[in-house]
């Protein structure tokens, strides 16, 4: 997300089939009447071939379309671009869509949210596909529960909603690492994400080789809801690697065939379109731009990057709101302003996709982050992805923005809109008393010492086979009478510092916090320890960067640690991923094993650690590359 007709009423697929059946029936009837009388034929044929009623908008488009050639053949189950318009089953079609991401809505609410999107007037749903949700570990593929993409797509079809699919492999989306699985950051040598790096493309080929065959039966030409598939995402705002984009197109065609419309989305400037588009007939170029910008000069520019007659105006991300970072005021945009900007597009037969129609929630640790001028200017996103969308995070539609957008859509929709559902009922649960069940450092009492990873220098989270949560770094130093100064030049993202002295009872004391965005030295008090003082640094992963040049965003301590200007060596690292808060981690006392360092640092190659099959590895892991992982806790 970066921040663009003789026509009859648009009908459902089943209704189209019924109309075709009526026409076949009417032909037989007409032949019978011709044998009786030419006059009878003239008199009765309108009864059997009556047209659906047209709205005032349809009549306007009907008059306009007299300037276009009639399409001689009506193709059922065909979605295409011609005469600078979208055509569905031989009829001009205006996309009025919205983003609604299945992975940000619990499956139990999918149908409810989709019905609310229909009530808003949408005929199309656009959704990303996050690679990291579906392959959280190398070779471990997940397509169940909230990751049941196929069921979501079939539900869209059941509700007569078309789908624009955005499989990435990069999606941005304010989602951790832009949808890339974090284990890609453990590959050595480093791969170059979003590039024609052969090692990276080999990984994409493995992923798409699993994903795209799953969705291929649901393409519109095969009787499914998917009308368009996006290549990458706003690549023109990132790079200029045409070989990379062309390879993605090749992979998509190999898995999806030649008929499906492939498209790119880029910001509405000449620079981004020049970098991010693939000119020619094979890929359609769509645009996005700031809400309130005059859309039609941008749509005119869009035509320069599409073949003649192949550039229906489409804003594939029309922003209904905006994202919010931690510490910021919740973003809000004016309802009437948003609706007026939308009408500028729809009133001249432009197509549009609302970003977002319904935002939802960044469940778990999947929120992304942004950066400013450098990677230390770090801004993690909220767990909420409400986005100030017309359908709120909780599903409410009784709000000014939903009503304003619906009024505009209703004026230009070729079908009458469904009634608006009522808001979801809420209930109060009263006060909830939180009860302390354990002290963090008490939880370490059950750890198996074989699973404590140890090294001379701190190691990034990804190399410990950990993608989310917290990582505890443990070392020790000799206390000084006047105290000491702790410096960590590079920590991602927030480090809470504790000390303990076993000769003084072993109580763990909080000292301070070092943050990525305001990195400051911390003074360590003199613990008056007879032995060395134990140092505990608890590092929190607050979300990987999902947009811009600093996306290669490993987590943990990424530099040496200095005590009074000297490098501190000999570290223990313990993963605290918080996969399941109802399950107490199995730990050993980290203080008791503070001076026991194993001689061998364990590294395991990808296929041994993940159980990846040789066949999958052949397609997914480039020759000469390994994913170097420590054993998980």
Tell me about this structure.
The chain is of the alpha/beta class and 633 residues long. The chain has 14 helices and 29 strands. The longest helix is centred in the N-terminal third of the chain and has 24 residues. The radius of gyration is 29 Å and the shape is elongated.
C-alpha Rg (nearest Å): 29 Å
Please give the largest β-sheet.
8 strands, parallel, barrel
Structural class: alpha/beta
As an assembly, this protein is single chain
Terminal-residue CA separation: 35 Å
Helix fraction?
A: 10-25%
- Runs in which pLDDT lies below 50 for 5 or more consecutive residues are 3-70, 587-619
Strand percentage, roughly? Answer: 15-25%
Task: Count helical runs.
Answer: 14
Shape: elongated
**Strand order in the largest sheet:** 4-5-6-8-9-10-11-12
Mean pLDDT across all residues, rounded? 85
Number of strands: 29
Question: What labels would you give this structure?
Answer:
about 625 residues, alpha/beta, six-stranded antiparallel sheet, elongated
Task: Give a brief description.
By secondary structure, this protein is an alpha/beta fold.
Secondary-structure map with pairings?
Layout: H1 13-36, H2 38-48, H3 56-65, E1 79-82, E2 85-88, E3 91-93, E4 96-100, H4 110-120, E5 124-128, H5 131-134, H6 149-158, E6 162-166, E7 187-188, H7 198-215, E8 226-230, H8 242-256, E9 261-267, H9 270-276, E10 283-288, H10 295-303, E11 314-319, H11 335-346, E12 351-358, E13 369-371, E14 378-380, H12 400-412, E15 446-447, E16 453-455, E17 470-477, E18 484-487, E19 491-492, E20 494-500, E21 508-515, E22 522-524, E23 533-540, E24 556-557, E25 562-563, E26 566-567, E27 571-576, E28 587-588, H13 606-610, H14 614-620, E29 626-627
Parallel strand pairs: 4-5, 4-12, 5-6, 6-8, 8-9, 9-10, 10-11, 11-12
Antiparallel strand pairs: 1-2, 2-3, 7-29, 13-14, 15-28, 16-27, 17-23, 17-27, 18-22, 18-25, 19-24, 20-21, 20-23, 25-26
